[in-house]
Structure formats: structure tokens, C-alpha cells
Design brief:
The chain contains 5 helices and 8 strands. The chain is of the alpha+beta class and 202 residues long. It starts with a helix and ends with a strand. The relative contact order is 0.23. It comes from Parasedimentitalea maritima.
């Protein structure tokens, strides 16, 4: 291995404290993530490819229905750090407060890259969550694209990782508005591309 390759690998090495990231890519099937299991597996696959190993990864996603799951109950208790070692939140209360460290410059991918936000081309700031601002499931409507198993009928609740834009709660990182639909095209039309948050359970 040449010296330049070694330097490049060191420059992109994730901080060992990394316990939070936005997926650098979706699964390519809109909001059909293969359910929570498929989404968790995608988090793990991306993390390990980036050299982040030995951690249990959970997608920050809620489900709806009789056996609804709250996203906040899936991700441990914190603290969480991004791929450069910056702390995103101390604990669950901090994560879901106005003082959370989530924002465009801190909500990095597993590779340490900034995700396009409002004003960038293409805009990718809609992050799938299916959650209310406190991280719980929305029980009133099915806004999880059939619990992340379809890219057909339905809609999904998304947050804005850059905490700006339109919708009922534009500054909310986990619950800004509802998508136009569940397909890849519909997600892109409303400002996303099927990305989601991953947290290391601790």
C-alpha cells in the first residue's frame, strides 16, 4: 500500500466514538427498507464498510399499528457522537430537545460527509422517521409506508436534518412533515431520497 493511500484512509477514518450517522445512501426502493430489520441491517452494513465495527446499530424509525414501536425506544440511552467525534446528544431528553446537536454540519454520514440540505441540488434533507417530535410513533395515521415495507401506497413522516424548510414543523429534525408518497420518485419530489438516521445502541 502506497503512502498516499495510507494518508487517504487515515483522513477518512471515523472517530472511534462514532455512534450516530445519516445513511450515505438509501436502499434504493423508496421507503421500502425491508422493515425495521432491513433498516437496521443497512445501518450495520454501512457502518462496517466505513470501518466502524463492534457496535449494535438501530435505525431511528417508528412503526404504527397495534404493535407500534417508538424510534426513541430503539436507540439506547446515549451519549451519541458523529463520525468526527462531535457529541450530538447526551441522552434521550437532550436528543429530543431544542438544544439537540443535530444540524446540517453535524449530521454527517458514516463517511463523514455533509448531507445536502435546503438550497443544495438535489435537496436531500427529508430523513425518514415515522415519528413525532418526542420520538414516539404517530398512532393516528399510518405514516410509515406500511412499517417500512412498501414503496407503493402511503406516506411517511420525515424530519429535516438541516432544521430548515417547509412543512408543519420545518425546524424539527425528526418530524417536519409528511412525504408525497412512499416511492423513490415521491420521496425525491418532496425533498428527500430515502435516507434515515442510525444510532449505536448502548
Amino acid at each position: 500500500m502506497c503512502l498516499l493511500t495510507v494518508i487517504a484512509n487515515q483522513a477518512h477514518a471515523a472517530d472511534e466514538r462514532t455512534s450516530f450517522f445519516i445513511t450515505s445512501e438509501g436502499k434504493g426502493e423508496g421507503a421500502n427498507l425491508g422493515g425495521l430489520e432491513g433498516a437496521d441491517a443497512h445501518c450495520t452494513q454501512l457502518a462496517e464498510a466505513a470501518g466502524i465495527s463492534g457496535k449494535v446499530w438501530r435505525a431511528y424509525l417508528s412503526t404504527s399499528g397495534d404493535d407500534a414501536v417508538n424510534a426513541r425506544d430503539r436507540i439506547g440511552t446515549g451519549p451519541w457522537h458523529n463520525s468526527t467525534g462531535v457529541m450530538i446528544a447526551r441522552d434521550l431528553d437532550h436528543l429530543h430537545s431544542e438544544d439537540t446537536g443535530i444540524g446540517k454540519q453535524t449530521s454527517l454520514t458514516e463517511k463523514g460527509d455533509v448531507v445536502n440540505g435546503l438550497g443544495d441540488k438535489p435537496n436531500m434533507h427529508d430523513i425518514l422517521t415515522g415519528s413525532l417530535p418526542d420520538g414516539t410513533a404517530n398512532l393516528e395515521y399510518n405514516l410509515t409506508c406500511s412499517n417500512w415495507t412498501t414503496n407503493g401506497k402511503g406516506k411517511a413522516l420525515v424530519g429535516h436534518h438541516d432544521r430548515v424548510g417547509g412543512g408543519a414543523r420545518p425546524k424539527q429534525w425528526n418530524s417536519a412533515h409528511v412525504t408525497w408518497g412512499c416511492s423513490q420518485t415521491k420521496l425525491q419530489g418532496s425533498g428527500g431520497t430515502g435516507l434515515f438516521y442510525c444510532f449505536a445502541e448502548n
